[in-house]
Structure formats: structure tokens, C-alpha cells
Specification:
elongated; alpha/beta; about 230 residues; about 45% helix
Length: about 230
């Protein structure tokens, strides 16, 4: 059956608390510890690299880390494959985050390498944490050698996709957090008819919840079909 693509607007802000770890508990725990120690003078950061298939949660985790650091009043440098503006390394940054590194152009790689060097060996002598993510292990990244090797010399975690039972659990937990109940038939329909990656499913649930509140109806398959008809 052909899966449908949705243009459904902005998803809720990712947080570390909302990330369902499943088989990725070690990576989540590592990031939580790194965030909590980011403002400690005794912290000697080691680069962290996450890799895994699309939908395994890489971007969610990187965005969640960025927001968690910002909540601490920490300034963060961010780049992904869509970034056009390339600011110089800012000494006020306490961390740099590099998403989708497997897609970086030559110019983006040059900026990332410059940021990495300045973060690890800064002029003021205080190292910064580097957090990066891509779809491939470091050794297989199609990047310049000096950047590729530096991304791989720290802590490396492979993220695994959640299985269907875990995706069902996450959908129901996220629905419960919104004060609604998802019937098994609705969950079956969502998994059968739409993209199965968890990010897309969370966006779909958020859209469906807003539509249910607007129409004052329970979340059912007819409501989901009605929402799609009004898009």
C-alpha cells in the first residue's frame, strides 16, 4: 500500500524527556549526562557522534540537546545540511552541534572542520563539546579525511529504529500526555497508511489532536479521514 506524505506544519519542540529510548537507552543516558555537566568547569568534553537510519531519532536528540542547553543559558553553535549562513566560530558558544553531516557540501565541511578545531582547541583554553550526527558510521562518511577522523575519535553511538510494538507504545503514551486515547484501530490505520518513522508519526498525532480539539470530536478513523479531507 502506498504511504501518504503530509504537510502538517511544526511539530512540538523536541526534548530529551520526550525521547523514547527503546534500544537507544545508552545514547540517551550519555546525552543527559553531557547536558547536565555542560556548565561544570571540571567537564572535559569528548566529541559525541550519533548515527543511524532516517527516523531513528538523531535530529530529535540533537535539537533536544540544543534546547536543554539553551534552557541553562548556554549559547550553542548549530549547523545542518540546510544551513546557508556560516558564522565564524563564536567564543561564547559552550557547544557546537552538527546535524546531517553525511550531506555536507565541501563548503559546509570546511566550516564544520573550523568549528571543530576551535571547539577542541579554543583560544581561551576551555574546550567545548561537539555533538554530531549522520546516517553512516564515521569511517564511511563521504567527508574530507580530517573532519571524518575527528568525528569518529570520541564517543560513537549507533541508533536503532524502534520496532512496531515500541512505536505503538510511543503513540499511545504521547496521546495520553495530551489527554486523549488512541484506539487500536486508529493506531493500526496510522501505521498502515502513513510513514512509519517516529518523527512523522508524532507530527501526525499532533495534527490529529489539534483537529480533534477544534471539532470537539473523539479521535477515530473517520476523524482522521476528515482531517485529511480538510487539508
Amino acid at each position: 500500500m502506498k504511504q501518504l506524505a503530509l504537510d502538517i506544519g511544526l511539530a512540538p519542540m523536541p526534548t530529551l524527556e520526550r525521547f523514547f529510548p527503546g534500544p537507544n537507552a545508552a545514547a540517551l543516558e550519555h546525552l543527559l549526562q553531557a547536558v547536565h555537566s555542560s556548565t561544570s568547569d571540571a567537564h572535559s568534553p569528548v566529541p559525541t557522534y550519533l548515527w543511524g537510519e532516517h527516523g531513528s531519532g538523531k535530529s530529535h536528540l540533537l535539537k533536544a540537546v540544543r534546547e536543554a542547553l539553551r534552557e541553562q543559558g548556554v549559547s550553542v553553535g548549530w549547523r545542518d545540511s540546510r544551513s546557508k549562513y556560516a558564522p565564524a566560530f563564536d567564543e561564547r558558544w559552550s557547544a557546537i552541534i552538527l546535524d546531517d553531516v553525511h550531506l555536507y557540501s565541501n563548503a559546509q565541511q570546511a566550516v564544520a572542520f573550523n568549528w571543530f578545531i576551535n571547539a577542541m582547541s579554543p583560544a581561551n583554553g576551555v574546550p567545548r563539546w561537539v555533538l554530531a550526527a549522520g546516517t553512516l558510521p564515521p569511517s564511511d562518511l563521504p567527508l574530507r579525511a580530517d573532519l571524518r577522523t575527528r568525528l569518529g575519535w570520541g564517543d560513537v553511538f549507533q541508533l536503532q529504529l524502534l520496532d512496531e510494538a515500541e512505536r505503538r507504545m510511543v503513540l499511545r503514551q504521547e496521546a495520553a500526555a495530551r489527554g486523549v486515547t488512541l484506539g487500536s484501530d486508529v493506531v493500526d490505520y496510522m501505521l498502515r497508511r502513513f510513514s512509519r518513522d517516529l518523527g512523522s508519526l508524532m507530527e501526525l498525532l499532533d495534527k490529529l489532536d489539534h483537529h480533534a480539539l477544534r471539532t470537539q470530536r473523539a479521535i477515530t478513523i473517520p476523524l482522521l479521514k476528515d482531517m485529511l479531507d480538510t487539508e
